[in-house]
Design a protein that fits this description.
single chain, about 85% helix, elongated
Length: about 180
């Protein structure tokens, strides 16, 4: 175990402060995604888990690189302080800017896609009328086809049906003993 001088501790604290600041920026990226896309609670929970795993991995690598993997309280405190400095200063500004940007992008796409939505509604009405007409017509045709098949005497099943009833009568009445 080696002793850290006050200068080394101060330098590590400032590095940790900067790392916490960068983790605040990463948090804002996650927050911007949440603002842009509506998520359910499960999605938010998974995103939080992903953020905390990212923070843990980055902190581990940071401690490994600058302090030979030793965990020191002032380094963790520096990270937390850097995160909160970002969160309550630049983070508030970042939320406003990202909120404005997302609203602007949504309005832009709404403006672009409004004519397409109107066209799709019109096509839906036209094809809906065509579909209803085709359904009515096909039902009528199906009903008429049943009657026309039964009335046509030349069809095979009508001949067999008629011939079968006629043959039975003939056989019963005129049976030859030979």
């Amino acid at each position: 175990m080696y002793m850290l001088t006050i200068a080394d501790q101060t330098q590590l604290f400032l590095f940790a402060l900067g790392l916490g600041f960068l983790l605040g920026i990463v948090y804002d990226l996650f927050r911007t995604v949440r603002m842009a896309f509506t998520m359910r609670r499960v999605g938010v929970f998974l995103q939080d888990i992903l953020f905390f795993l990212t923070c843990a991995a980055v902190t581990f690598l940071f401690l490994l690189a600058v302090n030979h993997g030793e965990i020191r309280g002032f380094i963790i405190a520096g990270e937390a302080l850097g995160f909160f400095i970002y969160y309550f200063s630049f983070g508030l500004l970042a939320v406003r800017v990202s909120s404005f940007t997302i609203r602007t992008i949504r309005r832009f796409f709404h403006l672009i896609f409004t004519p397409f939505r109107a066209l799709l509604r019109l096509l839906g009405r036209v094809f809906g009328k065509i579909r209803r007409f085709a359904r009515k017509t096909s039902k009528k045709i199906a009903k008429k086809s049943k009657f026309s098949l039964q009335q046509d005497k030349t069809l095979l099943y009508n001949l067999i049906k008629n011939a079968g009833t006629g043959k039975r009568r003939e056989r019963k009445g005129s049976e030859d003993p030979s």
